Amino acid sequence: MPLILNVPYKEKDTAKTIGAKWNPELKKWIAPHKDSYPDFHEWILKKEWFDYIICDVFYIIEGHRQCFKCGENTKVIGFGIENYYWLDFDEDEDNEEECAIYHYYTGEINVASYIDPLPEKVLKYIQSKYNYKMRYSKTIKNSYLANCCDHCDALQGDYFLFNEMDSPFCITDKETAEKLALYRIKLSYDLPVRAQHSWGSGDPLIKEYGSVKELDFNL
Fold first, then answer.
1. Beta strands 211-215 and 73-92, pairing class
2. Would you kindly state where each structural domain of the chain is located, as residue ranges?
């Protein structure tokens, strides 16, 4: 999928020389091939800061866990990213500015605790199906979109949900992978986002044994 760029008019010739294409429907410049995304970094970054580019598809991943407060079984979600760039920011010693090193990953589904911003259609869908909303965390002293218990509404904090060994998203074998329901969302344009993800040795099992269904959002 192509990537929408934010090219000022006075810079259009430079972007075109590098390979940007004009999309008359969007009235925007696009980078047509993911291999060239690093070349267009300055025009991706003009919109707002990001550290991932999600390519082609991403997933809503549904699991279940026991609420720490009421003890009931509750649905929880994370996100799956399969083809993506992760940007490693480093300081350029020559000009004392941050430079980004692009690392591309593909082949397995990795779990992300959040994606920001989520496409509006996707967020509305999630909030119609799950108890997922802005909540204040006393632990981190900040508000964020979070899973909450279906029964007692207690915040299911991201750290415990995504980093503990008994997390539904910590895949250790076929059985834990089979408990996940994955909802695959195709992208019309790749997404530059902020995110937090992890790699696990059991991640290849997610695609192999998780239940995958298609969602059509026409994004």
1. unpaired
2. 1-47, 49-215
